[in-house]
Amino acid sequence: MSNHPLKTVRVLASAALLAGNLLTLPAAAQGQPGVTRTDLQRHDLSAPGREAVQVRVDLAPGVAFGNHTHPGEEIIYVLAGAIEYDVAGKGPVTLKAGDVLFIPAGTVHAAKNVGSGTASELATYIVEKDKPLLALAK
User: Fold this and answer.
1) Which pTM does this prediction carry?
2) Which of 21, 31, 131, 134 has the smallest number of CB atoms closer than 10 Å to its CB?
3) How far is residue 54 from each of residues 40, 109, 125, 130, 133, measured CA to CA in Å?
C-alpha cells in the first residue's frame, strides 16, 4: 500500500493551517520589517467563544511595533533581549529575558526593542474567537 494519499492529506492539512493562521493576522503585523510573528498553537477554551493563542514575536534591534490592542488578555514572557512596553495608563517599562507582563483586554499598548540584538517574547492571548488577533490603535 502506498503512502501517497497520506502525504497528500498532510500537505493539504498543513496548507489549510498556514492559510488560516495568515488570515488571522492583520496585514500590518505580517509585513512590518523587523517583526516576525510565529504562531505556535491555538486551542478552544472551556469558556464558550474563547480561545488561547500562543505566538512568538521577534523584534530586530531598534524596531518598534506601534499602538495596538487585542480582543482579550495578553500575557507576555520575554525570552531574549530587552523590550520597552508602553501600556496606556502606565509609564513605559523595560523588560528583559525572564520578565513577564499582563495586558488587559482592549488596552492600547506598544513595544520596542531597546537592546542591541534581536528581542523575543512569548505572547499568550486569551481572546474572543473569530476576531482579529490584533487591531492597530487610532
Assistant:
1) 0.77
2) 31
3) 5, 18, 6, 16, 11
